[in-house]
Amino acid sequence: xxxxxxxxxxxxxxxxxxxxxxxxxxxxxxxxxxxxxxxxxxxxxxxxxxxxxxxxxxxxxxxxxxxxxxxxxxxxxxxxxxxxxxxxxxxxxxxxxxxxxxxxxxxxxxxxxxxxxxxxxxxxxxxxxxxxxxxxxxxxxxxxxxxxxxxxxxxxxxxxxxxxxxxxxxxxxxxxxxxxxxxxxxxxxxxxxxxxxxxxxxxxxxxxxxxxxxxxxxxxxxxxxxxxxxxxxxxxxxxxxxxxxxxxxxxxxxxxxxxxxxxxxxxxxxxxxxxxxxxxxxxxxxxxxxxxxxxxxxxxxxxxxxxxxxxxxxxxxxxxxxxxxxxxxxxxxxxxxxxxxxxxxxxxxxxxxxxxxxxxxxxxxxxxxxxxxxxxxxxxxxxxxxxxxxxxxxxxxxxxxxxxxxxxxxxxxxxxxxxxxxxxxxxxxxxxxxxxxxxxxxxxxxxxxxxx
Amino acid sequence: xxxxxxxxxxxxxxxxxxxxxxxxxxxxxxxxxxxxxxxxxxxxxxxxxxxxxxxxxxxxxxxxxxxxxxxxxxxxxxxxxxxxxxxxxxxxxxxxxxxxxxxxxxxxxxxxxxxxxxxxxxxxxxxxxxxxxxxxxxxxxxxxxxxxxxxxxxxxxxxxxxxxxxxxxxxxxxxxxxxxxxxxxxxxxxxxxxxxxxxxxxxxxxxxxxxxxxxxxxxxxxxxxxxxxxxxxxxxxxxxxxxxxxxxxxxxxxxxxxxxxxxxxxxxxxxxxxxxxxxxxxxxxxxxxxxxxxxxxxxxxxxxxxxxxxxxxxxxxxxxxxxxxxxxxxxxxxxxxxxxxxxxxxxxxxxxxxxxxxxxxxxxxxxxxxxxxxxxxxxxxxxxxxxxxxxxxxxxxxxxxxxxxxxxxxxxxxxxxxxxxxxxxxxxxxxxxxxxxxxxxxxxxxxxxxxxxxxxx
Lengths: 452, 457
Fold this sequence. Notes:
The structure holds 2 protein chains of 2 kinds.
Chain A: H1 3-9, H2 11-26, E1 30-46, E2 49-67, E3 70-76, H3 82-95, H4 118-121, H5 125-139, E4 146-162, E5 167-185, E6 188-198, H6 205-218, E7 228-234, H7 236-242, H8 244-250, H9 252-257, E8 277-280, E9 301-306, E10 309-310, H10 317-323, E11 331-332, E12 342-343, E13 348-349, H11 357-363, E14 366-374, E15 385-397, E16 400-405, E17 408-413, H12 414-420, E18 422-432, E19 435-449
Parallel strand pairs in A: 7-14, 13-19
Antiparallel strand pairs in A: 1-2, 1-4, 2-3, 4-5, 5-6, 7-19, 8-9, 8-13, 9-10, 11-12, 14-15, 15-16, 15-17, 17-19, 18-19
Chain B: H1 2-9, E1 16-32, E2 35-53, E3 56-62, H2 68-86, E4 99-102, H3 115-130, E5 136-154, E6 159-177, E7 180-190, H4 201-216, E8 223-229, H5 231-246, H6 248-252, H7 255-260, E9 274-277, E10 298-303, E11 306-307, H8 314-320, E12 328-329, E13 338-339, E14 343-346, H9 353-357, E15 362-374, E16 378-390, E17 393-398, E18 402-406, H10 407-412, E19 414-417, E20 430-432, E21 435-438, E22 447-454
Parallel strand pairs in B: 4-6, 8-15
Antiparallel strand pairs in B: 1-2, 1-5, 2-3, 5-6, 6-7, 8-22, 9-10, 9-14, 10-11, 12-13, 15-16, 16-17, 16-18, 18-22, 19-22, 20-21
């Protein structure tokens, strides 16, 4: 499917968009019309058995107008009456917020098609069902575990047009797999999982299954972790939780509102020199890659932190305009386009370090390897607090995983930890859908646990 | 619409077919700081169809009616395939077919209030927060209302039309000093009455004062304490820690979990009664019929400390040989129904608030909730803030209160239950899989937990 094919297949939707835009223009407004459609094919296995196959096909339209200096927003899942849609947006604009921005005119250019893969588009139920069976037949019953799997294939297209002359169209494929093994015993629930998503057909299904089996085996033995301060290695899945405070403070709207304490700190060395964090909207294969954000701004590579120095915020049109900065292509709407665009990360990358993971683990005389947290997202992010239950973690002594630690809480201040306690970055990295992270060694973290 | 859906489910080669169609309109108003950030109106329209063939499910969802017939065929083919490869028959627990119309029975009907009036009312609250002055530096005021018309038809003859309202909001004050930011907030919500959004000036003043005071509060010292939870946190605890474990779809697939969750097993002391109910008019979790057409009820999960029930769909009830409880819920037409909660609460006990504090030399009173998570056995959730309890009395304010623990030990450790149930509602909702936020309620009294781990430094 080329761009021309998209225009032909969705001619009705495109004509609707153009009519809405034209009516808004005639009503004296600047306007932007957004449309996306996606067809998903989710396949679900539960407890070692195929459970459900779905097909979903959804369209979403959104109209944003700027009229007499105020913004009005409306969305709809159906191409109904263009006049009604314009009326709703104009009504919202009557009471709406003052517009601090204008719609961009510069086109992101033609779709290079880097986020489309014909092999993924052609994937049918059969392949997804096969992947699921491969995993569940290999893992279900192993050590008493139940095996669950969710596979999915998605094809979609997006178009954004505005009265400044922008007309951006792209199409996209994605495939995803989530593999879970679950053990339920009196006093010992264990969930191990692995997952990935890609715009390409490059999922490592057997590698993911093997990792679940490895974790399942390693986690069957529980060991006690007395409360105290320990070195901790965070696996890529757990690294995302550690980044929560950075992403909250680098959010352009939070900076604009003054909730983030970082407004005047661009250019400041805030983290360890070995630490770099990049938002990359065009990372090949990564799940969030695409041509432009939901406001039509081209995606790109935005270093948030480079060699320890705060370099950029993630910005949508409004926050960029308010802060006098250039938008970074991070304006994202909700899934059904039912909310205003707000800054969201695209793909997040922490570049690989130099040390082998084995050395990081050996370097901890007595520490914890955390695979994933539970509930670590709900703290006071602007204060840097990351506190989470260790959902899956191992006590590591002399480089060896000696058993699973549970019923304990991990706590650090992410800002100080990434400045003063970052002891090493692994050369191994993992892609998990829209992130690519190495393992990070923190030299000190607080572990709180039960006394009995 | 009824005829359209009846045609979709009629005479199909399947053991069971159900079709839903939904039209909803959502109004959203957001103030942040001095700015009105969003005024929007969204229309969400679409249909879904689910088919069961030999124990296999096929599900489709669409929002162009012209896609319906093609996708119905896809659902039937998918169900047939799953049924064939699955090798296990599923019998849905029976429910009587229902023909019903449930019209909205509003208190003050938000549909009769203009957008301008809503923007003004929220703007008044916002101005009041911003006028508080330092250290309150910014605000967050959210208002959202969703009105839904929902049709459901099944191949068994059920045909239900429902009107639903879900209204929720938040008034938040943000205080900052140096690099420190603290937030305090008041939530409101209802399934029938705009009146809950009125007259909240006193609440605004409370949250401003609290946000300011939290800047001076120390971070709670990590460790194990006796903890008294306020009604809101107690409600979120019982939702997270026991409600999710009681959702019988996971249980029906997991024989070992069935052993752990055997009816008749003791989970708590005699004083502990936990229920889930869709009967409370006005609660966000009010639900006359679930998305399989099962009428609602009050379902006891724990009675006098003993497990007596769980939250069923027709499938989970059929597989466990139990009775459907009206808990099969779908977020909207994009998803199939799964086992979910409604209004989950702890029943009132006999303790006064002073009784709860009595005898605690050093403990924590944990207030409000910023959400939580559980894996069935372990839970963690974040309180809005806390107060230390010293010698049986409330003492200084503390911040960053995050509780973690083992669900089973913690339930055993609930040793006192307050007598005053809060029917407070808040914004947000429950998440399970990709289906979030689903409106739920947690009406509870305050509770005392003998020992709980509080994380931090």
